[in-house]
Design goal:
- There is one protein chain.
- By secondary structure, this protein is mostly helical.
- Helices cover 75% and strands 0% of the residues.
- The protein has four helices and no strands.
- It has helices spanning 2-21, 24-52, 65-84, 92-95.
- α1 (2-21) packs antiparallel against α2 and α2 runs antiparallel to α3 (65-84).
Amino acid sequence: MLASNYRNLATKTAQAAVADISQGRQRAYGLSLIAVMMTLALILGPLAGGYLSDPSVLSFFSPKTPFIFAALLSVLNAALVYFFFRELFPVQLFLYV
């Protein structure tokens, strides 16, 4: 449940950022790229999970390895957003609305 909420938050943030910084056809292209990446994640995620849980690929892989990998990717994503994502509009714009 927590992972689902985090995914929804990340998707909405990405869509809002693309919508704010692009116009017209570029906006449509950016939003379609987000949709394509989400579709690729649905296809490649189970495949990666299968390989990450197979001990014949690497001896230390186990059924819990995909969960550890997903947690590490989530922490990395949160850190990248925290350190590198800048607010697109100053806060002063919203004080008088």
